[in-house]
Amino acid sequence: MRISRQECGVCKHESVQGMYLMSMWLCKDCERAIVELEIEDASYQWYVEQLRKSKMNLLLTH
Ligand SMILES: [Zn+2]
User: Fold this and answer.
1) Ligand 1 centroid to 6 CA: how many Å?
2) What is the pLDDT of residues 18-43, one digit of tens each?
3) Where is it found, in Gene Ontology cellular component terms (predicted)?
4) Domain spans, the chain
């Protein structure tokens, strides 16, 4: 069975393990990072920004 790799919408790395968040693929590393980061953390803001951008892209393609 062929395992399909998905490109993470945040870090752009291809990964087999992960989850869909707002119809965007999120790799295990980014999923964990978002869960563990504090809202005050600059990295958290960066992740949120990536998610926001990807959602905008989805809206534009429809
Ligand atoms: Zn990622």
Assistant:
1) 10
2) 998 878 899 999 999 888 888 888 88
3) ribosome
4) 6-61
